[in-house]
Design brief:
Blueprint: H1 2-21, E1 22-28, E2 36-40, E3 51-60, E4 66-73, E5 78-84, E6 93-99, E7 112-120, E8 122-132, H2 140-157, H3 174-177
Antiparallel strand pairs: 1-8, 2-7, 3-6, 3-8, 4-5, 4-7
């Protein structure tokens, strides 16, 4: 009986420590279907040396669509939290959880002031953006490798005449790719 109580206390302590290490920056329960400024980050929220990740569901009904979740500063500099397209979706739906592309260990010299969505002919549902003191379980490189593998699987299924792969352009940050 004491072991069960001790185990329960340990589990409760562990759960409470997880909630202290993560802070919800924003959570949106409505459907987003156009470019949107989601939230302005309060001045007292410290993002440097933290990870910002996103979860949600992107819905696509054709090939020429995309969803991007970005952290931005007042001068137009962006960090890509997550990006999705039909090539990484299953039956037009991309369920993503705790992903961060360029927002792991955010540099101290950035003053990010807003979370915004770029979206073209798609829908974003059940989105949340969370600040965490811990790094994601998978590295950015592993996420990108898995994404390319999944894209190539979808391309083969569609009998596409091209193959996705790592290029010098894909290795650039979101800001440099869009200059």
């Amino acid at each position: 009986m004491k072991i069960k109580k001790l185990s329960l206390v340990f589990v409760l302590f562990w759960i409470s420590s997880l909630s202290l290490s993560a802070q919800i920056l924003t959570s949106v329960n409505q459907i987003i279907n156009r470019d949107t400024l989601i939230t302005t980050i309060q001045k007292n929220v410290v993002l440097s040396a933290k990870t910002v990740n996103a979860s949600g569901q992107a819905l696509f009904s054709s090939k020429s669509r995309y969803v991007r979740i970005l952290l931005s500063d007042d001068y137009g500099y962006d960090l890509l939290v997550y990006e999705s397209s039909p090539l990484v979706a299953v039956n037009g739906i991309d369920n993503f959880s705790n992903v961060s592309i360029e927002t792991v260990n955010i540099p101290t010299n950035l003053t990010l002031t807003r979370v915004r969505i770029e979206i073209k002919n798609a829908e974003l549902k059940n989105m949340s953006v969370v600040i965490s003191a811990t790094s994601p379980l998978r590295s950015q490189q592993q996420v990108e490798t898995d994404k390319i593998t999944f894209m190539n699987s979808n391309l083969r299924a569609q009998n596409a005449l091209w193959v996705a792969g790592e290029t010098s352009m894909s290795q650039l940050s979101y800001v440099l790719r869009n200059c």
